[in-house]
Amino acid sequence: MSVIELRGIKREYRMEGKPSSKTKKTSGSVVVVRALRGVDFCAEAGEFISVMGPSGSGKSTLMNILGCLDKPSGGTYNLDGIETSKSDSDTFAYIRNRKIGFVFQSFNLLSRTTALENVELPLFYRRRKHDEKKSSSASARKELAMTALKEVGLAERIDHFPSQLSGGQQQRVAIARAMVNDPAFILADEPTGNLDTGMTLEIMGLFQQLNDRGKTVIMVTHEPELAAYTKRIITLRDGELVSDVQVHERRNALDDLAQWKKDHVLLSEDK
Ligand code: ADP
Ligand code: MG
Asked: What is the pTM of this model?
């Protein structure tokens, strides 16, 4: 069974203002932007998918729908067996908190809070009604957060505050936070947009390792070089899914990181 099943997803934004080439005029000064025009898309557990497309093609709109931050104007979205478009707002929020792990370009960590506490945070939103008592005690939450931080290679840094960590380490904390609830998939929006080359390769390597261990990852990116580390690339254009290809020779980010480090050392010795 697919983890994600989108059928005929449409999203229209209605707004006041002048129509442009992408909008169709309606009565008065209201214009309708058709940001998604009927997207069909399925993802299986264990996939690593990049979402590409030029600016304005509908990537963020699609991410918001996949992340249950927004509902489509038309079509259906089945996530892990639940039809999200029919759910009430409580259930919708529950699905978002429990089934999806978010990773953002800007990390979005709480600055006065340690790495461990940042990772524990999503566990407070679990609702007893739905969840086993397993995660409800403080010690159980701490243990789940420790395990997630170990998985991203930060076991030694659990008491550090975000300002005491590098950008790459902060993003690792954010990835641990995204995983702590064991979500159906991780949704990453330009996760390396604020990182230099070395840290970018480290983070892509981490996503590859997590994916090799079975995590399902969907990542928005502008950069074809980063999409080359994923297993499948879908491309949007003008609100439509125009291509969907498997990556045959997936690059290995940690190999590229090792090579990059070599070149980097050589370059600085040349100077
Ligand atoms: P991308 O992330 O690929 O750049 P978006 O999903 O942000 O694309 O936008 C797709 C289209 O929808 C664009 O034409 C954009 O201007 C429009 N759009 C996005 N969000 C809104 C909104 N909240 N209100 C009106 N139009 C929007
Ligand atoms: Mg966008």
From this structure: 0.90
